[in-house]
Amino acid sequence: MRKVFLVALAVLMLLPLTGAFAGGEKDDGVVTIGANIYSFQDNFMNGVIKPEMERYSSELGVKLDIVDSEGQQAKLNDQVDVFITKGVDVLAINLVDPASAASIIAKAKAADIPLILFNKEATEAGAMGAYDKVWYVGTNSAESGIIQGEMMVADWNANSDWDKNGDGTVQYVMLKGEPGHPDAEARTIESVKAFTDAGISVDELALEADPNWSTAHGNDKMAIWLTSAFGKDIELVICNNDGMAFGAINALKAANVQLPIYSVDALAQALQHIADKELNGTVLNDGVNQARATLDLALNAAMGKGAVDGTSWVLDTDGTKAVRVPYVAVTPLNFEDFR
Ligand code: BGC
Ligand code: CA
Asked: For the chain, which domains are there?
C-alpha cells in the first residue's frame, strides 16, 4: 500500500516536468523544443546533427525533447500532435517525406507554434508561404553536387589512366540517396553535369537509390555491380553521401578492386578513408552549424523575436525563409583541417 502511494506521489511530482500542464516558456521560464530526426539509423543525422543539437541545447539552456521518426512520415505526424498537446514552445522538424511539409506546417499554424524545418527542404510549392512562423535550415543542395563534380573533373583530367578503355568517356556508377530528397536529386544531377560542362562525355552504367542513404545499400549494390557484365568497365563511383560510400569501399576491398570514389558529408570515418587512400574526396556537409542554426532560430522564434536576431545566420533573400550553411570541398590535400 505504502509502495503504491509513493509511486502515485512520484508520478504526481513528475507530471509538471513532462510538460503535460506546461503552457510554454511564458509560464515555466524554460523554452522547450519538440524535435525529431527522420531516422536514428542515418549516419549523418545520428552522428553529427543529433549530438550537436543535444550539446548546443544545454549550452543555450533550452530543453530539447528529441524523438526518432523511424523513417515513417505517419509516425512523425503523430509525434508532432503529441508535442503540440504537451505544449512545446517551438518545433524543430526533420521531415521524413519532403513532400509532406504542408500538413506539418498546417498543424503548427493551427496551434500557433513556430516551426523550424531542417535538413530536408519542403518540396511542395507554396508550403513555406502558408505560415509566417516557419523557417528552413539546411544547405544549398546543388552546391554539394557542383563541388563534388568539380573535384572529380579535376582529378579525372589529372589521371589519364582512370579512363580505362581510353574512349574519353567516364563510365560511372551512381549511389543515390532518397528519391525526391532535394539533396539527393541535386547531387545526382550536378555531379555529372560538371563533366559535361567541362566537355567530358559520360556513360551511366548503373544507378540505384536508397531512401535511407545507407551503408548496407552501398555495399550490396557495389558488390552486385562488380560481378555484373559491366563490372570491369566501371571507371568511377559517385556517391550522394559518405554512408553509402562506406559500403561501396567495403565491397571494393572485398573484391580487391581499386576505383576512384567520391561522396558528401565529411564524417570522421570518411576522413580516415581519405587518409587510407580508399576515398578520393568528399564534401563537408556542415551538420554542426546546421544544428546550431536550427536551435538559434528555434529559440528566437519561441521568444517571439526575429528568426535570426542576434545571430550570425543570414536568411536567404529568395523568399524561401531559409538559412543555408555552405559546403566545403574535402580532398587528400586539406582533409587534415577537418579532423
Ligand atoms: C546528408 C545525408 C543524409 C540526409 C538525410 C543529407 O544532407 O548528406 O547523409 O542521409 O541528409 O536527410
Ligand atoms: Ca572510359
From this structure: 2-139+287-325 (3.40.50.2300), 142-285 (3.40.50.2300)
Q: Which residue has the cell 583530367?
A: 157
For ligand 1, residues with CB inside 6 Å are 42, 44-45, 119-120, 177, 181, 183, 213, 241, 243, 264-265, 285
pLDDT for 79 equals 99
Give the dihedral sign, CA 324/328/329/335: negative
Looking at every residue in the chain, the average pLDDT score rounds to 93
Residue 24 CA: distances (Å) to CA of 20, 88, 305? 10, 6, 15
Question: Which ligand has an atom closest to residue 156 CA?
Answer: 2
Confidence label for 317 from pLDDT (cuts 50, 70 and 90): confident
DSSP tag of 337: G
Residue 185 CA to ligand 1 center (angstroms) comes to 12
**Euclidean distance between CA atoms 230 and 224, whole angstroms:** 10
Cβ–Cβ under 8 Å, residues 244 and 269: no
Alpha carbon 157 to its chain's center: 31
pLDDT band at 134 (very low <50, low <70, confident <90, very high): very high
- Type of residue numbered 83: F
Q: 3-state SS string over 61-126?
A: CCEEEEEECCCCHHHHHHHHHHHHHHCCCEEEECCCCHHHHHHHHHHHHHHCCCEEEECCCCCCCC
Neighbours of 87 (CB within 10 A): 19
**Across 26-30, 78-82, 171-175, least confident range:** 26-30
What residues are paired with 68 via a beta bridge?
37
